[in-house]
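Researcher: I'm preparing a figure for a lab meeting and need a structural model of a single chain. I don't have an experimental structure, so a prediction will have to do for now. The sequence is pasted below. Please return the structure as tokens so I can convert it later.
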Amino acid sequence: MRIVSIITAIIVAGLLYLLVMERETLMAWTGAEAPAETDVPEEAQVDTATAIQNVTVNSVRVMARRSVAQEVDSAVILRGETQAVRQVEVRAETSGKVVSDPLRNGTLVEAGQLLCEIDPGTREVSKREALAKLAEAKALLPESRARLAEAKAQVPAAEAAILEAEANIPAAEAALSEARAGVPAAEAALAEAEARVPEVESRLIEAESRVPEAKARLREAEAAVPAAQAALEEAQSRVPEAEARVQQAEAQVREAEINLNASQSLARDGFTAQTRLASAEAAFETAKAQVQTAQAGLLAAASGIQAAKSNVETARASVQAAQSGIRNAEAGVIAARTQIANAKAGVQSARSQIEGARARVSSALSGVEGAKTAIASTKSQLEGAQAGVQAAMTGEETALSAIQSAEAGVAAADTEIDRLSIHAPFGGLLETDTAELGALMQPGSACATVIQLNPVKIVAYAPEASVARIEVGAQAGARLVSGREVTGDVSFVSRSADPATRTFRVELEVPNEDLSIRDGQTADIAIEAEGAQAHLVPQSALTLNDEGDLGLRTVSDTETAAFMPVTVLRDTRQGVWVTGLPDTVDIIILGQEYVTDGVPLAPSFEEVIQ
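Model: Understood. Here is the structure written out token by token.
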């Protein structure tokens, strides 16, 4: 390109030299007569002479044009195409066969009009099944809440049982202390009985005087027999109660075992929660602990019977001892020997009393252990009751979850049924036939394409130089390829440029009540905008400075070259309209590539040459 410009400049310079300096020779060589002096205006002759005189050796000859700014028209001219204001491809959201007759393309449809109807199939059955599950889940909720109330009611009873068992411990410990306190007394009695043997032997002579004492002891021993028998009967009366408790505890064990087996069976089939199974296991363990407690009570009752029998025997032995004392006292020496025997019997009795005291200590210890076992049992019952509450709460939550799940199933069934009917989202025109009768629809299958052409959009892309002059709401007109002219308003101007073309999308909205304007027609668009002062220059006169700015080389008042940046307003066949220049300016149209700012010029103007 630079070689061509150099050659062009040389040719132009040669022509200028011939036209200016060798005009007559050129005219003679071409065979044309030189024009008369009257043909050239006097001012032109003066300007030419002045220009020739001002040419210096270092001046660069260029061709220039004096340009005066003009106001260009106020319209932004674009080319675009028509588009439907709304277009949607209606698709199915479920599967099934189409059972509705198709609508043909070109049919006008209203908003909400049925386009495609899909065979419901088994969806109604699924909905009824979901409703049945919902009713079943709601029916289980009262039962779960009743179980929760029952489980909560068992907690206070278990807590009261714990308090009662804890209250029994002090009494059992007091009985233990009392029994332990009886042991030293029994041991003292034994020592006393053993000490009586020498005394009896030494008092053999005094045996007769002890007859009243022996009789008194007899009466005392006889009086102790009914008390011992009453204690024995009382101890024996406790045995049926203890046996009843054992039987009750064993019945509870069997019931808990049955519940545990039922819970394990239901858990294996997935019909119950793990918490309910754990509750059944805890109830089974609690029942077994209660059996052990009842058996311990039965053993304690048996021990009481043995102790009472021992007391009866002791009382009877005391009676016999007293009787023997009487006989011994009456019999003299034989009585003394009998007293010795009685004394020894007293020693045995004292030993029996010691054994009885120790038995009472053991019984009291068993009572304390039984009380502690009762506390542990009641605590287990409390834990079982609390576990039952948790299980009941879990059951209630499970019932509520089942209700929510059933409601979700009903909603899903309703949604699936609603999706069987595909309706037009807005009023418009069918661009395609709707799905054919019997066609199998899948999720995402197209039912029809609906477009809305009233109003219609005309879309164009404005260059960067023109987009700033376009405003939303501005009046605009368009000429279609058919020659029809329509008017409308600018409805949208994009704020983001297309990355490929660096242009901005502009949309017009035009009425189309008769739907005569189709989608995709080409249109020439004129958008109203403010006018601007611009210069019409040849496109070849545009150049770049060292910074890469677009502009023109001009002739300054001192006839030196000056670069002026410009903005391209419009490109036409006649040239380029640019802004950014003074109202009147001398523009270099030939030779601008060979000069820079400040270079002296010898300009020749088009008007003078012409």
